[in-house]
């Protein structure tokens, strides 16, 4: 007589299996959040400081034509404004917002992977995004990139649900997530365009489903109309905040795509990287053409189409950067995870997954020491130790950044004086209330009051540094921002040694 074993906890193997994946995901999310918070303790960089300045503005100003000065939509800045009201403006505290959004993006990658495959595909996609240097970078930047990636993953999940079940819920999820993405970063319009056309193709045999899809996209377009008009007006203005972006060659485009799509996060793409990227695109193209399941075709078209469309548009209006392509990395990782979990041989599948995760971990470890960072704390400390009579910067944007870290360090002394450089940052115009002087007037003040510290960031080169009457002594080397002491011979007071 066989005795049936009863689980003392009232469960079953099937129930335990169903709980295993969510439990593993929860542990993963906790570990990732802890790691990203621990490694986020460094100065904000220039673009993040710009985010803070926008978040300080009245919300009514963010949602008005005042935003013509800024190429990024106002949604993330509005969220950041509320977040600052809750937690303050400490560097790590404000970064908790994008870290939380990026962690939610890992959960969304799991959800999309499970929707197109199973729990294994979802967990591998979540693990790849957790170890991704790009994903870590996006979630630690006080910018909207992590929110755009989350929105695209949720929108893809909505499309997959609609392809499978033709449910209204899938359309609603797609519509809301796409609008969030469009009001987070303007390049998400490329995603909306690719998704719209691809879904029409995949729904070709179902006219009713096509009509609902078209109606949803008309609603999304109507909701985005205000910012679309702002973007069009920005393109007609003589100087824009994206004027510094270069027109990419095909080699540049390949290198940036490899940085976003390959696990090692390479800064330079050699022959091996180009071959890996070519192999990835060949596999994705095969999925787009031969895959039996429409949701796989959808993700393949989005992954291939994003860099191609960015490259074509950038020949007219240069916008191709790794961060403007970053929203496409979510669907790409989900497809890679799906491909690995569909390998018929379990040992080969496990080995392939382990290799991908190992390469991602190596890429993350190599990126951490070289990530984009700026040394505002050190710059302020150097200025404070020399006690100059004047502090001179080349633009309102640099003055705002320096003012923030002076206040945080509770340093006394002069506020920055702006001596406008040849390059001007339009978004910061009028936001700094301090003194503005011409180069000649600044020299006269230095002669009268003595030593000055000049702070230089990127293209903001204060013209006073080039004046032959001034003697320059650098205080920093190979760091951003750069600090230089300026003396005028026979001035009333020389700089401290």
Going by helix content, strand content and strand pairing, the class is mainly alpha
**Rg (CA only):** 26 Å
**Element-level helix/strand string:** HHHHHHHHHHHHHHHHHHEHEHEEE
Q: Which regions have little confidence, pLDDT < 50, spanning 5+ residues?
A: 1-10
Distance between the termini: 95 Å
Number of helices: 20
Instruction: Give the number of DSSP strands.
Output: 5
- The percent of residues in helical segments reads 55-70%
What is the number of domains?
2
The best one-word shape is elongated
Main pleated sheet: 5 strands, mixed
Short overview:
The chain is mainly alpha-helical.
Architecture overview:
It is a single chain. The chain has 497 residues and is mostly helical. It folds into 2 domains: 13-370, no CATH class; 376-487. It has helices spanning 13-38, 46-55, 59-62, 75-87, 91-116, 119-131, 133-140, 145-165, 168-182, 188-202, 207-235, 250-261, 271-290, 294-314, 322-325, 329-341, 346-367, 376-386, 396-408, 439-449; strands at 390-393, 417-418, 452-456, 471-474, 482-487. It has a 5-stranded mixed β-sheet, sandwiched between helices. A hairpin with a 7-residue loop joins β4 (471-474) and β5. α5 crosses α16 (329-341) and α8 (145-165) packs antiparallel against α9. The longest helix is centred in the middle third of the chain and has 29 residues, at 207-235. The chain is elongated and about 80 Å long. Residues 1-10 have low confidence and may be disordered.
């Amino acid at each position: 007589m066989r005795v049936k074993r009863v689980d003392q906890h009232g469960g079953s193997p099937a129930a335990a299996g169903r709980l295993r994946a969510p439990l593993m995901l929860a542990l993963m999310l906790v570990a990732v959040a802890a790691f990203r918070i621990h490694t986020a303790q460094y100065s904000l960089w220039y673009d993040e400081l710009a985010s803070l300045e926008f978040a300080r503005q009245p919300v009514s100003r963010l949602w008005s034509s005042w935003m013509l000065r800024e190429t990024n939509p106002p949604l993330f800045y509005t969220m950041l404004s509320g977040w600052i009201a809750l937690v303050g403006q400490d560097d790590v505290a404000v970064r908790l917002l994008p870290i939380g959004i990026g962690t939610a993006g890992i959960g969304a990658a799991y959800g999309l992977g499970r929707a197109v495959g199973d729990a294994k595909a979802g967990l591998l996609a979540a693990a790849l995004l957790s170890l991704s240097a790009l994903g870590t970078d996006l979630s630690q930047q006080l910018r909207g990139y992590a929110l755009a990636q989350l929105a695209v993953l949720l929108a893809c999940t909505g499309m997959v649900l609609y392809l499978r079940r033709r449910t209204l819920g899938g359309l609603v999820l797609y519509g809301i997530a796409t609008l969030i993405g469009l009001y987070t970063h303007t390049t998400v319009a490329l995603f909306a365009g690719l998704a719209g056309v691809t879904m029409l193709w995949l729904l070709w045999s179902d006219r009713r489903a096509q009509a609902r899809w078209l109606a949803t996209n008309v609603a999304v377009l109507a909701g985005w109309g205000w910012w679309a008009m702002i973007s069009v007006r920005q393109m007609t203005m003589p100087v824009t905040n994206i004027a510094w972006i270069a027109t990419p060659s095909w080699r540049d485009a390949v290198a940036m795509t490899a940085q976003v799509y390959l696990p090692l996060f390479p800064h330079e793409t050699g022959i091996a990287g180009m071959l890996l990227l070519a192999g990835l695109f060949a596999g994705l193209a095969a999925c787009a053409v031969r895959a039996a399941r429409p949701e796989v075709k959808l993700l393949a078209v989005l992954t291939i189409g994003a860099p191609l469309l960015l490259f074509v548009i950038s020949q007219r209006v240069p916008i191709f950067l790794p961060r403007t392509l970053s929203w496409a990395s979510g669907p790409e990782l989900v497809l890679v995870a799906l491909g690995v979990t569909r390998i018929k041989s379990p040992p080969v599948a496990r080995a392939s997954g382990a290799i991908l995760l190992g390469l991602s971990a190596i890429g993350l470890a190599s990126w951490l020491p070289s990530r984009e960072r700026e040394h505002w704390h050190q710059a302020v400390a150097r200025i404070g130790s020399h006690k100059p009579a004047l502090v001179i910067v080349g633009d309102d944007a640099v003055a705002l950044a320096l003012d923030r870290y002076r206040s945080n360090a509770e340093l006394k002394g002069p506020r920055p004086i702006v001596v406008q450089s040849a390059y001007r940052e339009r978004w910061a115009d009028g936001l700094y209330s301090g003194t503005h002087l011409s180069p000649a007037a600044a020299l006269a003040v230095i002669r009268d009051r003595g030593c000055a510290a000049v702070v230089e960031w990127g293209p903001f080169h204060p013209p006073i540094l080039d004046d032959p009457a001034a003697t320059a002594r650098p205080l920093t080397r190979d760091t951003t921002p750069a600090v230089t002491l300026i003396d005028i011979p026979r001035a009333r007071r020389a700089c401290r040694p």
